[in-house]
Every structure is written in C-alpha cells, then in structure tokens.
Amino acid sequence: MFQRLAISFIVLLSIAAYAQVDTSATISVTELKQKLKSDSSLVILDVRTSEELAGPLGKIDKAINIPIQELVNRLNELEKFKSKEIAVICRTGRRSGIGTELLRKKGYNARNVLGGMTEYRKTE
C-alpha cells in the first residue's frame, strides 16, 4: 500500500513539474510596453511578412523585421543583439513562439510576446 502511494506521489510530482510554464520565454504586452519606455536596449523582432506590416495592425516603430520563413537563414543579422533581450512578435503569438524557440536554442535571450500585435493594439 505504501509503495503504491509513493509511486502515485512521484507520478503527480512529475506531472506538476512538466506543467510549469517557462515564464522567462514569454513577455506580456503590458510588460513589453513598460520595457519600451524604460529599456532602450530592448530589441523587437517582428516575424510577420512585409505585407502584414503594412496592414491594419501596423508595426512597432523600432522593430526589426525578419519573416519567420526567413529567420533560420538570416540569424547572422541578429548576432550583434545576442547579449540583449529580444521580444519576438507576430500577429497572435504563434509564429513568434516558433521564432523564440529557435532563437533560445541558438543562445539568444528571446521572449515571445503573448497575444502578438493583436493584443498590442487592443491595449492602446
């Protein structure tokens, strides 16, 4: 009986550990907007297409644009920002999540902007 309870407890602990969210890999729109006002070294990487940048959601003024489909081949353009925090943004957060994961695997301090430009524009 004790062994069965111990195993159940270990399984529950394992599930809880995997359920933890790595908050260092994300940034809320509110936090992003605060950092834009206070941290001039923050880099914003917009992974949408140039057509999307010209669309109704627009773009953030100092954002660097490298579409997600080109990111792997254009990583060298971001090398000079490797020591800085990079906020990665797209329309809703899906593509920027992929970009963030790629950058983090390459040693960048990248964070996915939760909700993307859709959320960014809602809070204006």
Describe this structure in words.
- The chain has a five-stranded parallel β-sheet.
- It has 124 residues and is an alpha/beta fold.
- The protein contains five helices and five strands.
- The chain has helices spanning 2-19, 29-38, 50-53, 94-105, 116-122, and strands at 26-27, 43-46, 64-65, 85-89, 109-113.
- It has one domain (22-122): Rhodanese-like domain (Oxidized Rhodanese, domain 1).
- 26% of the residues are buried.
- β2, α3 and β3 form a beta-alpha-beta unit.
Can you summarize this structure?
The protein has 124 residues and is an alpha/beta fold. The protein has one domain: Rhodanese-like domain (Oxidized Rhodanese, domain 1, 3-Layer(aba) Sandwich).
CATH superfamily: Rhodanese-like domain
CATH C-level name: Alpha Beta
Number of domains: 1
Rg, Å, rounded: 18 Å
Q: List the quaternary state of the chains.
A: single chain
If you average the pLDDT, what whole number results? 87
Helix/strand order:
HEHEHEEHEH
The share of residues in extended strands comes to 5-15%
Strand order of the largest sheet: 1-5-4-2-3
Shape: globular
State the total count of DSSP E strands. Answer: 5
Stretches with pLDDT under 50, minimum 5 residues: 4-21
Give the helix level as a range of percent.
40-55%
Structural class category: alpha/beta
CATH fold label: Oxidized Rhodanese, domain 1
Distance between the amino and carboxyl termini: 58 Å
